[in-house]
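User: These chains co-purify. Model them together.
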Amino acid sequence: MKNTLLVVLLFLSQFAFSQTGTVTGTVNDGEYNDVLPFANIIVKGTQTGTTSDFEGKYTLELKPGTYTLAYSFVGYQSKEITDIIISENESTAIDVTLQASAGQLDEVIITTTARKNTEAAVLSLQKNSINLMDGLSLESIKKSGASSVASAVKNVPGVSIQGGKFVYVRGLGDRYTKSILNGVDVPGLDPDRNTLQLDIFPSQILENVLVIKSATADQPADFTGGVVDIVTKDIPSREEYSLSIGASYNSDFHFKDNYLVSDKSNTDFLGFDDGTRENPLSPLQEVPLPQQNGEVVEAITQRFNPILAAQREKSLMDFKLSATAGNQYEIGDNKLGFLASLSYKNETTYFDEYVDGQIYRKDETDKSNFELLADRTQNGEVGNNNVLISGLAGLSFKTERSKYRFNVLHIQNGESEASIFRQSNFIISSNQVKKDNLIYTERAITNGLLSGKHSLGSENDWTVEWKLSPTIARIDDKDFRVTPFRVTTNSQTGEETYTIEPSESGVPSRFYRNLEEINLAGKLDIVKTHSLFGYDAKVKFGGAYTYKQRDFEVIKFSIPFLNFPSASLGGDPNLLLADENVYDPATNSGFYIRQDSNDSDSYDSEVSVAAGYLSEEFKVTNWFNAILGVRFEKFDLIYTGENQNGTQLIDATVLDKSDFFPSANLIFDLNEDGDEKIRASYARTTARPSFKEASLAEIFDPISSTTFIGNINLQPSYINNFDLRFEKYGENSDFFALSGFYKSFNDPIELSFIRRAYGQYTPLNLGDANVFGGEIEVRKNLGFIDGLQDLSFNANFSLIESQQEYSDDEREGRLDNLREGETLDDTRQLQGQSPYLINVGLNYDNEDTGWQGGLFYNTQGKTLQIVGAGDVADVYTLPFHNVKLNISKTLGENKNSTISLQFENLLDDDVESVYQSFGAEDQIYSKWNPGQEISLSYSIRF
Amino acid sequence: MKKFFLSCIAITATILFVSCSSDDNDIIAVDDDPTPVNAELKGQITEDFTLTNDVIWTLDGRVTVTNGATLTIDPGTIIKANPGQEADASVLIIARNAKIEANGTASEPIIFTSTADNIELGQTAGTNLTENDRGLWGGLIVLGNARASLSGDATENQIEGIPASDSNGLYGGTNNADDSGTLNYISIRHGGTLIGEGNEINGLTLGGVGSATTVTNIEVVGNVDDGIEWFGGSVNSSNLLVWSQGDDGLDIDEAYSGTISNAAVILGDISDHGMEIDGPAGSLEGRFTLDGISLFGNTITENGEYADLRDNAMGTLRNIYAEGFKESADVELDNNGVSQNFLDGKIVFQNWVLNGADNSVFVEKVGCLENCDDDNDDNDVLEELIISNPSFTERAANWTTTGSTGGANMSVFSWTFASSKGAL
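Assistant: Joint model of the two components:
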């Protein structure tokens, strides 16, 4: 803390020497999705000026005052931006887009004010993009008050977030939506998912987030819903430091005396475990049974941490800190920039009434009974502490015609959870169980990026861009502990007895899971401008190579006992491994550690994708822009592992596919300014099985009590995508878009239940599926009503219909369990696909007073969460109506500090999923209340 | 100053990267002499094969007899199974269409036990293990083509604990006269290893086993889960003894339709029910007959009950003798569905002799209908009792007498391990 203060003081003392301010920005080409290099920028009425560099970037150092800048380039309409205010030590960003002045002899000058131009720049990238793209700038992320990519990206039309972490684009989940970092693949941080979880990327490290919904040849072929590209901060154009602090209070979660925690390590607050939760046994340790070698069993058992119970203590509130620093230096004609960012977040949640994992069944013997029967009810308390630290450091070196960038990003996340659940079983078993669960998951991802961009050729008609990006990701589930007691209530006295009965309530167990994934990604893109049909055209070609290798390992132990009256523990999990209760060979009694691992839980896989592409972007006429391309990808999956039968594969090539992926994007300008457009696109894409799916793995999940069975014969599925969109760009950032899309899936992969083996699931290539839908997006400044110039309204609405055919087992399971009078449809909706998404926001922004505010509403339609298995009904996530309010005020002469206040979940809605069945009353699968949260934060820039 | 700022970041980053490695996980040497392996059984047995009694056989992992092969086991053969849990559990599976011909004799029974057991060739019992040494290996699973009443009226099902990727775990079919071979004078000891949460292997599992199969003179000692469990099927089973199981002694599911005669269950210190009886899971109905059963309870175990009839159970329970149970132990009809089966004559009780208890042990229970999901039991909405005037307990007086003889003929168990340990 002292150090932080010192840093702040040093910053302050360094203030106040330079007497100038700067204006910086990018000049964009209104004709193509590109920047405009070597454009002229002149301060009107002076000789002062500069030209944009090969990336379209420019910087001008000016004394404080108000200026007009003129932007011009041969063959383009000139643009003048008025009212540019330069303040001391301040950097003002002005991005402009120049339109071609095709066929016009007279010089056309378009004049606009700086303020209007800034707002318009947000849409500029989107407008000129050849892809169907939605961008979220850092500005709009800040406005929505989102603290991570996950909460920010929800505001994009057609995007929803599942479980607060995983992005769905157009209702298509992790198999069809790809998350990439700075344009290259990075490993996911969940052993069960293909995609990256987005809640670990704090908004502080972002430059912007791009959601690309239609494919072009230069994009990877394995996405269908969309690509979410997380772009980290670029190097600032001048010296800049910032600090921000914040705290949040939730009346349901914070300062509660009965908050639940597990045992802690000394470094939990830094997002990693200090070794306290490490497996105390060497991987080579043989674990005998007490009947074989009691002394060794005793010594082994004594090594384990005896804490198995969730403990109570007072919960703290959430807080976060972040700092950034960046600068740029002139080295001769070249520029060297650096950027460093560090952020820390510590969040605590506590649910005192958390219902989860309940099971309801259809009446199998009486089809006229519509009501669902309770098989398992389960509710309890959950305490969770989540620490997230991220560090980003970058260097860039820019010469006249080249730019090099080196970035390192590290994200460290530690999540500790303790819970106590009560479970009642009615049908499959008949008993009551109390469970203490202790969970700790450590995630770390380190990504490096080395990239270069070069402008070549005598007329700068060649652009070469390359990227090399290695990533290493680790997820360690450390010492998950589950201690179930059977609870028997004496019907006369009401007295409860707690016993450990492996065959009734399960055996106490603890396990360790490690996943390590290494990704190496490289990419080369070459663009050559040339002339075609009398217009400028671009040929784009390149290649990419991605290599991924993943190791997954599970180590499991259980804690059975010999000759011990378990009722004497009184239901206290911490007594199982208390000194006096550890197995003693002398008395042949007590609790001991037994190794339960098996080889079919673990696997080691490699994937490589080699790609090459060629595309041509050209104009046929003045108003018709097209990009046609084809991409080739060679995909190989190599697997090492074995199943329980002992069938073993070592470095076996499971998949080896070479495919061509054609794509076409057509853009029709409906008027000369290009502010009304129709876009049409077609692309072929693919969805590939994950490491875990195309395997022999047979993995029992003690948390959901289900078994996952890999399918080594799984094939990729192929998708044809069609998109049509009308766009209208107006004054004051007004925007309107109407889109329609259709996707047909060939042999889509879905996790399917196995009818003859209850609770077991395997991925299968199912029958064909279709998804179609529409999106509407409106952004409107309310300035047309007098006095409401500072208010703007934005809304987007998506309607999506999906049709998935059943697997044979699923169809039979459904037919067998139809109620009287119920019929089975030919298809059902895709798992995780929301039938509609709604985002509505009202923004207030007054630059003069510094007040900003926003009121946002977000919801998604009833979504199929779990596909029912025979007599178990389907589970649907019900809409969660989230209303939030942000208010912020910019302070100080230079507007360099901001204080903001945020309210979450104003409607105090519950998060709820229910079983639904024909004619039956809904029954709860899971339900909890996220509480209402109020956050206050302060940030300052130097 | 900037350097200072950067170094702050660098130091923090370094702290993040360095995680402390604990070096106190040295290997503890296990220096026992491993049991000498005479002959090992592993993987699949796809051709006829005989286990002879001149060596001790070791069962390593999941051993499956498939492809219509017959596994013959000579009298006096000892099979010791390796330890291992879940997928590594040592189990012997007789898949559908394969057979086991295990014909022991009273003096030369066939013994399945753990490698931790010090029993030697020619002996019928080791000295180091007791009835409380449980879960040291898996169990014996016999699967056949006879009918089972399955969820959704499926004709086949995967036996619990074997992943669906192994089709040798399937049982059930349409041939009630199916023949899986012979099990005669078999003692299964110290098994029941964990194969999933709350999912242990029974001592002897009979899945869809048909009536041409012989199952007689079987003993199961110290199993973690149930002693013997029938999943459907029609095989008749006789002279069965279960001692000190972790869960239920005899467990009937999925409309098993055979007769179990002359069986005894001796509860141990953690045993649950003497008998647990479930009904059909699909629309196929089948009724079991339990005839000549002795149940021996104790007052140590927390949950020792006589019998639980659940989930649409249907069958006949006659000539039953029970002694030694706790005062609170009962024979219960679990909910309205089961009680209705009793009223409809689908569950029949005849000639129960209770030693130290009377007809009050017969209890009608009710299921919970609403508000079952919360912790609060007070607001639960329960089913109504449906057996009235007279009540189930009152009606039980018709078939209950008090006495000290009845049930199974215990003399047929003199060959058993339980007998040699004085448990009878």
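Chain B has a mean pLDDT of 88.
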